[in-house]
Amino acid sequence: MGLINLSSPHHHSLSQTSRLMALVLLATLPGLAAQSYFYGYGTLINLVWASFLALGFEALILYLRGRPIMPYLTDGSALVTAFLLALALPPFSPWWLTLVAVSFSIIFAKHLYGGLGSNPFNPAMVGYALCLISFPVAMTQWAGTEMTMTFGQQWQWFWLESVTGGIDAYTSATALDIMRHTKGLTLSEVASSNPQLALGLTASMWVNIAYLLGGLVLLGFKVFTWHAPVAMLASLGFCAGLFHMGEPDLYPSASQHLLTGATMLSAFFIVTDPVSGATSRKGKLVFGIGVGILVFIIRSYGSYPDAFAFAILLMNLSAPLIDTYTKPKAYGHQSKAPRSQGRP
Amino acid sequence: MTKLWDFHGGVHPIQNKDQSNQLPINTMPLPKQLILPLSQHIGNQAKAIVAPGEYVLKGQLIASAQGFISANIHAPSSGFIDAIEERTLPHQSALTGECIVINTDGKDQWTKLHPVSNPETVSKQDLLHIIQAAGVTGMGGAGFPSVVKLQSKAKIDTLVINGAECEPYITSDDRLMREYAEQIIAGISIAQLLLDQPRCLIGIEDNKPEAIIALNEALSSHTNDKASIEVCVIPTKYPSGGEKQLLEILTGLQVPHGGIPADIGIVCQNVGTVKAIYDAVVLGQPLITRITTVTGKAAKNAGNYEVLIGTQTGDLLDFAQVDMSKTSRLVMGGPMMGFTIQDTQTPLIKSSNCLLAAEDLELAPIADHHSCIRCGLCEVACPAQLLPQQLFWFAKAEEFEKAQDHNLSDCIECGACAWVCPSQIPLVQYYRFAKGRLKDLASEAHIAELSRVRFENREQRLIDEKLAKEEKRKNRATAAAAAQAAKRAANPSEQDPIAAALARVNAKKQEQEQEPKKQVDSAPKTHEQIYKELKTAAAITRTKLNKTNKALANAVAKDHELAQGLQTTVDELTIKAADAQGKLQAYEAKLGLDPEKEKALLTDVAKANALVRKLEKALATSLDPQGVETQLVIARVSQKTSANALAKHQTNLPSTLLPEQEQ
Ligand code: SF4
Ligand code: SF4
Fold first, then answer.
1. B517 falls in which pLDDT band (50, 70, 90)?
2. Which pLDDT tens digit goes with each residue over B218-236?
3. What is the atom index within ligand 1 of the atom nearest the CA of B370?
4. CB atoms < 10 A from the CB of A72, how many?
5. What is the residue extent of each domain of chain A?
6. Taking CB atoms and an 8 Å limit, are B373 and A225 in contact across chains?
7. Contact A10/B370, CB-based, under 8 Å?
8. CA angle, B380 as apex, B378 and B383 as ends, to 5°?
């Protein structure tokens, strides 16, 4: 019987990348459900389509790069990218919009940088940002909450971008958009003149709470540490609260910031992306704080419907720098030895 | 109850301890043959003091420690020395090393022992001597000679006894504590005596309740009013038994980077080691046995065995009825830090605490590893507070300096990071590789430094010589001038005899002053000078010969009349060149220089380096790194040996070339 030579450890926790990824996918389900409930079937259709595309592109690129296909395909990272994109894109995204986003994410943002683990930017966010810049109209067509499309209508819109009665009946600006484009009115005036705002805020709130739930589950399973999401939410909440206190009529409150748009989705599913984030726990804190501040600034003064893609990409850019300055102190480097003088 | 602290990170692997801790320690029958490596410890290899064919008694010294950090080795049973030869060592690399092989005669006859029933009556010096003579080394991990720690110069206020045994599967310390609690406490008392009565904390993980009870019972009947002994029950978490981690748990202090526990007033010993100290002093027995766990699902009689040091693994496995057809991975040590062995003749040494014969599905599957997703789980688990994912990155990219910047040297190779890694990257393997490379680089730098110093010394000497020559010339000139002046003063005038006499005296004085300097000048040339001159002479004649040869060829081609003359010159020069070359070689031989050998060694090194680099590249990209690693380990060993040989060869040079008067 041949005895083999192996390096220690000979034991393993049996955790696997694919299981971690599967957990992440599962944790998005509450959010997905809430989103579908409020905005219709768009997200679901998008999700299936994006997953299909992501796996296809991943396999193709792996094949072209001469890498083993199955081990990498089954690690689940492509699916996570697909899910995140599908959830972040507007429910009324037509097929080509998702195609552009997914292909760009997988091919350029991920594999041209060397594949999983080597990509400096979060692939989903790169795809999202590209679409945001290239197709601003399609990207701001957010579903309204009063009237949702039937599955058939949604299906038709998805492929043909036409729907009986016109799309305008079903779209509305997001709550964030409404709050920013106040046209000189104060926030309370906007709220009273625009009943959509209240509705939009409620829907958005539930969606965010659902994502928060999923995120807490992941935290419980120790898929990531609390540092980045908590730092991000805290800094966003702090900035918002501060400005809201100063001028409540101009700036939405902290809770409105925390529970609208893609706040929770980003906090728990994107800011926590380990590949493109900072490494150490201190680094993650800095990273999260940076994202929170940038989100607040872009939301308040920028002209895009939501700020996450840019905030995260900017922080991805600074992650190596953060790493350099937040290297944790190793064992024995903490402090001077209390008695090292006593050494002969 | 002493306050406990926590250490960063750590993991909770499945314990699997009850496979082996149920039965009492079983003594293994005397094996036919014992193999005793001369290096079972950290430090210098011991030197064999017996010869093949010699008869030795049980407990007789057969190899003696060399230097301060080294340890004696004794015959574990009586019998004849069969051979002193290279055998496989119990080591990750499966290297071979010098071993004494004893064929036991079955009588198991002791040599005369000198027990000390009451250690308190003996001087510290004598106690230390007894422990040193008994060859006691650390029995938990690396095998550091215990006596070195016990005569710490720094003031020691805490003696930490490591009974944590945090590695899964291993239970040898557990059983030892249960069955030899009193001896352990007595051994601790001896250690306390030697260290000026520090307090003692025994750290035991809470998964060993029986051992805790046993020790506490032994303590209740123990009296020592000078120093306290306390059993500290610590939470089960791997690697709490790492020396640095245990110290942190028990005292809240961290051993400073690059330091030793004594720097913070602590000495740490394993429970097995204090038992060995007891045996050495009170029973007078040298360290020739130990308790080893045999476990794993392939072992029918899993349990703990008292074995003689030098017992072959195969013998113990047979005795424990291990079904070798069921296991393909035989681990010496625990599943987290142990190493696989392939040769069942590999002997058990003083630090061999476990043999794990696991069934194939029992341990981590051999999986292809994925890319690092930078999930950070490894960082959370690392007890050394490192960034394992970054270290991995640097090791893979061969950016060893950066790895060093990230404190690679503080990695204790505990394997916690690799254990949690969801991508199943064999991280520790990468760290070992990087550490090895760093060491190589350091030794390369060391060699470079040596040659630099050698070169600078030589330059300085040449300059000095030149200056001395210059001075001598000047002095000679002044002396000559003075002599001339004296002559002139003496000869023509004769009017002033006194002045003339004075001048003569002066001249003489100067000449006398000249004398010692002259002696320096006429001192025998240094070897190096002679060697150099010979080399130059040989080179010059060679060049001349070549030139004339060319001229001759030219002349012949043009049928010039000079050809005849040139031919004679060539003939003469050929003889001269051969003569010069011969002289040079003779001198080289005299100095022990061997340019051919150096060239051969250089090629060896280059070849080995190239192979290692090639394999390292292969390792980084291979999806089956284990296979490559084996080759790599072998290649690295040959790389090191060749580098060492070269270094030795080169460092031998300067001493033979040093001028004699400097020696
Ligand atoms: S645990 Fe493995 S995959 Fe995760 S960061 Fe560490 S090395 Fe990378
Ligand atoms: S093996 Fe080294 S890097 Fe990995 S957890 Fe242990 S100390 Fe940290």
1. very low
2. 998 887 777 889 999 999 9
3. 3
4. 21
5. 12-172, 183-324
6. no
7. no
8. 90
* pLDDT at residue B430 tops 70: yes
**Which range, of A176-185, B311-320, B369-378, averages the lowest pLDDT?**
A176-185
- In angstroms, what separates the C-alpha of A33 from chain B's closest C-alpha? 27
- CB-nearest to A116 from B338, B366, B371 is B371
Rounded to the nearest angstrom, the distance between the alpha carbon of B36 and the centre of ligand 2 is: 32
Q: Give the residue, out of B370, B419, B421, B427, with the most ligand 1 atoms within 8 A of its beta carbon, to mutate for a pocket test.
A: B421
Least confident of B37-51, B215-229, B279-293, B492-506: B492-506
Task: Spell out which residues of chain A touch residue B339, defining contact as CB-CB under 8 Å.
Answer: 7-8
pLDDT band at B498 (very low <50, low <70, confident <90, very high): low
Give, for A90, the enclosing helix (H) or strand (E). Answer: none
pLDDT of residue B501 exceeding 80, the answer is no
Q: CB distance from B413 to chain A under 8 Å?
A: yes
Which residue type sits at B651? T
Structure tokens at B228: 């306290």
Structural Rg of chain A based on CA atoms: 22
Q: How big, in percent rounded to 5, are the helix, strand and coil portions of chain B?
A: 50, 15, 35
Residue, of A176 and B610, whose pLDDT is higher: B610
- What is the strand order of the sheet B47-48 is part of? B47-48, B61-64, B73-74
Task: Please report, in angstroms and rounded to a whole number, the separation of the first and last CA atoms in chain B.
Answer: 63
pTM of the model: 0.72
Please report which helix (H) or strand (E) contains residue B294, including its range.
Answer: strand B289-295
Which residue, among B153, B238, B361, B385, would best test binding to A if mutated, counting the most A CBs under 10 Å from its CB?
Answer: B385
Structure-token match 């970054």, residue found: B390
A192-231: per-residue pLDDT in tens? Answer: 667 677 777 888 889 999 999 999 999 998 888 899 999 9
Per-residue model confidence (pLDDT) at position B92: 79
**Ligand 1 and B372: CB distance under 6 A:** yes
* Residue partners of B23: CB distance under 8 A and separation at least 6: B303, B304
Distance CA(B280)–CA(B116), nearest Å, equals: 9
Is residue B638 predicted with pLDDT exceeding 90?
no
Chain A CA closest to residue B328: A3
Residues in chain A: 344
The pLDDT score that the predictor gives to residue A214 is 95
> Is the shortest distance between the CB of B259 and ligand 1 below 6 Å?
no
Average pLDDT of every residue of chain B? 84
Per-residue pLDDT tens for B18-65? 888 888 999 999 999 999 999 888 888 899 999 999 999 999 999 999
Domain B367-487 has CATH 3.30.70: no
- Per DSSP, the residues of B557-616 read HHT-TTHHHHHHHHHHHHHHHHHHHHHHHHHHHHHT--HHHHHHHHHHHHHHHHHHHHHH
Give the whole-angstrom CA distance, residue A308 versus residue A233.
Answer: 12
The domain ranges of chain B are: 115-284, 367-487, 497-591, 595-651
Cis peptide before A9 (omega within 30 of 0): yes
- The ipTM is 0.77
Tell me which H or E stretch contains B208: none
Q: Taking the CA atoms of chain B, what radius of gyration do you get in angstroms?
A: 35
Q: Which element (helix H / strand E) includes B648?
A: helix B625-657
Among B387, B425, B429, residue to substitute to test ligand 1 (most atoms within 8 Å of Cβ):
B425
One-letter amino acid for residue A87 of the chain: L
Answer for the pair B375, B118: CB distance below 8 angstroms, yes or no: no
The rounded distance, in Å, linking the Cα atoms of B131 and B277 is 6
Can you give the pLDDT at residue B518? 44
* Nearest CA-CA partner of B422 in A110, A284, A323, A117: A117
Supply the CATH classification number for the domain B115-284: 3.40.50.11540
H/E run at residue B636: helix B625-657
